[in-house]
Recover the amino acids of this structure.
């Protein structure tokens, strides 16, 4: 094999290039976040090329984001977009993902999305610390030969530790916090872990095979539904959407929920924050807005849907086509 960074030959068992030091077994989003848009030549809202010198689109008037306001990253087999939205002062979502294995024969894809809890301080730092710690831990576990379930447990534990370290001893009630959802995608199955209300969906491309939500929210409303209350009554309850579980120094560090999907045919795995699913909560409604576009284009399309419907919250969308080795 050749190093994807410098092109020098390397052994398939090497983890790092002897010439440039780059990783031979992992290509991932930058630690700290993929700041800024891929291109500032077109509007992130409507796609128009009429950009004013003041940073506003001359067609739709949208201010063009910078830094954490709009983060995009494309690894071909997986891609994601994280957008501040139209109402929030800053983007408190974070995403991290990577492709594990040689370039010509990848073995798995790892994705982590965290949504900072807005009622806590430094929520953006919490979500970024969470995704960075989790992906590193999950990748290390997989490279040590651990299974996807154990690696997912390790990733959540690392997120708890990293986010917990951000807390100020004198203000435990405002400890930085976030939600957590992760996925390990291999050639045969998809392992999803979560804490909180960030979600994972399976969008099926096979006729007769339904799309479905893979996660269940850790909220009061979800607990009431599980106890037998009708969904409309549960949603109307006081503090219905308050989190029952989260990642932070003031949270109980317990293992994540885990589910494993063995798809019967092709489709797409979509991980997202509530900035997207609040507008497209059901798998069927999300599937209706899902095209066969490449991952980055699809993530941008879904983000635009949320923006057009109001964009009241931060929006993060990561897309993984399945099976990735045949695409």
């Amino acid at each position: 094999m050749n190093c994807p960074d410098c092109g020098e030959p390397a052994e398939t068992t090497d983890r790092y290039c002897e010439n440039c030091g780059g990783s031979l077994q992992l290509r991932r989003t930058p630690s700290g976040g993929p700041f800024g848009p891929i291109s500032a030549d077109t509007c992130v809202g409507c796609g128009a090329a009429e950009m004013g010198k003041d940073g506003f689109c001359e067609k739709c008037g949208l201010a063009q984001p910078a830094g954490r306001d709009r983060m995009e990253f494309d690894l071909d087999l997986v891609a994601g977009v994280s957008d501040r939205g139209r109402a929030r002062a800053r983007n408190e979502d974070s995403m991290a993902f990577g492709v594990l294995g040689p370039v010509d024969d990848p073995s798995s894809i790892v994705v982590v999305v965290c949504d900072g809890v807005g009622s806590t301080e430094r929520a953006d730092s919490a979500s970024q610390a969470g995704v960075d710690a989790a992906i590193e831990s999950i990748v290390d576990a997989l490279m040590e030969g651990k299974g996807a379930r154990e690696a997912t447990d390790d990733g959540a534990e690392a997120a708890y530790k990293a986010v917990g370290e951000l807390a100020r001893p004198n203000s435990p009630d405002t400890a930085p916090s976030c939600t957590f959802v992760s996925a390990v995608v291999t050639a045969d199955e998809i392992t999803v872990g979560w804490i909180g209300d960030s979600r994972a969906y399976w969008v099926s491309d096979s006729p007769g095979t339904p799309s479905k939500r893979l996660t269940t929210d850790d909220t009061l409303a979800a607990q009431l539904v599980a106890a037998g209350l009708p969904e409309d009554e549960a949603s109307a309850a006081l503090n219905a959407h308050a989190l029952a579980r989260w990642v932070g120094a003031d949270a109980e560090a317990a293992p994540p929920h885990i589910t494993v999907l063995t798809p019967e045919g092709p489709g797409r795995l979509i991980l997202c924050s509530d900035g997207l699913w609040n507008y497209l909560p059901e798998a069927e409604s999300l599937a209706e807005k899902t095209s066969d576009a490449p991952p980055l284009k699809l993530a941008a399309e879904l983000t635009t849907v949320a923006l057009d419907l109001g964009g009241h919250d931060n929006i993060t969308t990561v897309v993984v086509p399945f099976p990735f080795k045949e695409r």
Observations:
- The chain has two domains: 1-30, 31-326.
- The chain has seven helices and 14 strands.
